[in-house]
Amino acid sequence: MSTISDVAKRAGVSAMTVSRVVNDTGHTSAQTRARVEAAIDELGYVPNALARQLRSKRTKTIALVVSDISNPYFTTIARGVEDFFVAHGYSVMYCNTDEDEAEEEQYVLMLIERQVDGVLLVPARSSGASFRLLQSHRTPVVVIDRRVTSRDVDSVRCDSEAGAHSLVEHLVKLGHRRIAVLTGSPSISTSMDRVLGARRALEEAGLDLPESMIHYGSFNYGKSNQADGHRMAMDMLNGPDPRPTAVFCANNFIAFGAIRALHEAGLRVPDDMSVVAFDDLPEEWVSEPFLTVARQPAYDIGHRAASLLMDHITGDQAPSGASVILPYELVLRRSSGAPSPDLLAAPRGDLVAPLDSDATEAIA
Q: Rounded to 5 degrees, what are φ and ψ at 144?
């Protein structure tokens, strides 16, 4: 393996000059730089990254801690993060917490031990314990997707409340008056913001959202495998309230589980019940998109959060508790439609007998 001394000898310069070229520090003439770079190429010299890290007290590594890496929303965020940091010479570590606070704490402790230069965090809960721990070790942190109240932590997210409001407002304009909400854990700000948006849209139309029409579960696909969406939909169908004519799902995986439950109950979407949801799927995942959604700018969220974290790492900008809120896009598709007069008149539609699995239709 070639050393910096070998490169210096080949280029006819000092080792210090090679170091200046490699680290892009100090003044070096264009002719000298060209000789050093040619010698590096000829010898296949690879700079000692660990030594540079020790000198600069930086590891050139950041971490992205998300709640569910299998969700395409978070994988798209990850792409935005990686594209930014790789272009700036950084490596990105990925950590998946499954919305588990204990797993999150273990990851945060590991990242502190490894002295990463910064962390992008999707907190499993709204307690703020993890970013306070990072701050105590002077590790820059930016929160993604969730709302935080700390004056010392910046965040980047989509407007969850406004997106939920638009989806439910769309259902109201179609003629729906009984709308249920299936959402994530009440301890997650995103989950509750979407409930608030749905409630506001109904109240503006003179309608109520009783607590009994709100069902809580998990946003997470990795462990629940859409089971929570399915369970919440069955609870909705079998509960004491009049059966809704539409349902707002707080993310796409909840929606998929809910639609499966509706099909098993012999109910058609949107003929017997309309379904709308937050988050879209990549176009290549489905041959014909079906679900009406509030689409989040996931790539832009990741890229913007990465840029903000870099400013904190370099000291160009100090954390101020700012919230960068990016807009959503309302995408109307076939899963939402006007309720039939029979559904509006029925105080409570009894469940249709479950279909045989062979008779269940695919949704997309």
A: -115, 140
In the chain, count H helices and then E strands: 13, 12
Q: In 10 A of CB 136, how many CB atoms?
A: 9
pTM of the full predicted structure? 0.78
Q: Which 8-state DSSP code applies to residue 212?
A: G
Pick the CATH number of 160-296+330-359 from 3.40.190.80, 3.40.50.2300, 3.30.750.24, 3.30.70.3420: 3.40.50.2300
As beta bridge partners, residue 292 has: 276
Note the pLDDT tens digit of each residue in 222-269.
Answer: 554 467 899 999 999 998 888 999 999 999 889 989 999 999 999 999
Fold agreement (4-47, 56-159+298-327): no
Spatial contact of 297 and 282, defined as CB atoms under 8 Å apart: no
Query: Measured between alpha carbons, how far is 253 from 184 in angstroms, rounded to an integer?
Result: 11
Q: How far apart are CA 195 and CA 78, in angstroms?
A: 26
Q: Which residue has the tokens 């790789």?
A: 86
Mean pLDDT of 278-303: 85
Please state which CATH class domain 4-47 belongs to: mainly alpha
Contact assessment for residue 24 and residue 18, using Cβ atoms and an 8 Å cutoff:
no
Pairing mode of beta strands 274-278, 246-249: parallel
Q: What pLDDT digit, counting tens, does each position of 65-103 carry?
A: 998 888 889 999 999 999 999 999 999 999 999 888 889
Write out the two tokens for 83.
Answer: 């594209």
Which of 33-38's residues contact partners 24+ apart within 8 Å by CB, and which partners? 35/11, 36/7, 36/11, 38/11
The DSSP symbol for 338 reads: P
Strand partners, 157: 325
Do you find a cis peptide bond into 140, omega within 30 degrees of 0?
no
| CA quadruple 135, 147, 229, 225: dihedral sign | negative
Q: Quick one: which of 23, 86, 89 has its CA closest to 56?
A: 23
CATH code reported for the domain at 56-159+298-327: 3.40.50.2300
What residue ranges do the domains of the chain occupy?
Answer: 4-47, 56-159+298-327, 160-296+330-359
